[in-house]
Records
---
Amino acid sequence: MIVDDAAFMRGSLKYIVETNGHEVVGMGKNGDEAISLYNEKKPDLVTLDILMEGIDGLEVLKKIKKINPEAKVIMVTALGQEEKQEEARKTGASGYIKKPFSEEQIAKEIDKVLGS
């Protein structure tokens, strides 16, 4: 599942995830959609943007972890968000991808988190 407030970012991530042999079961543009989709789809993995309008990625991460403490969530961060990255780690994020990213970085992080 992919959650990002930027349509082009959702599209880029979807392309990379699918090109590397994984299925995208849902895409959300904000925190409310993320939580609803997570409950509905129960995905193996979520990529989650930290900065979004409304409920930010850190709050979404906390809510997903309450739903499923074993949830695998990769946070997508921009440069300069190190303190938020540390908070996400403490909350239970499984991994991180920094923008701008390459297809190889995303594939490696997904494989690492999924244990592939």
---
Amino acid sequence: MKILIDTNILISVALFPNPRIMRFWSLATDENNLFLCSYTLEEVNRLLARKFPANKQDMAVFLQKLQYTLVHTQDINIPNAAVIRDPKDYPILTSAIYADVDILITGDKDFKPVNIKRPEILTIREFMEKYDSGR
């Protein structure tokens, strides 16, 4: 499967790993193709500068070791059903649609009301419930 990871998930995995997050990460990355969008990487840098400046190097090392496909975020028309409360979330959704990923994983509740068939939008918990048969 092709999976695009949102900013909050990437930061959780890289900076705040715990057994649940690492189990998710293993499931999401072992046999799937990971995608990150340029907007997410820019957002990560802004967040690190503002909230976690001491972790900037840790994130750089994490991203350097990570195998992923980079999607250059661009403006595209999205379906009318894809209305998001926070306009800052549109670049993530448009990147997922443009890259034709199967799943967008996010912890952002503003994605919940989005009603589109592809990509499937899941939280970590929903992903684990659906794909972790070894629980």
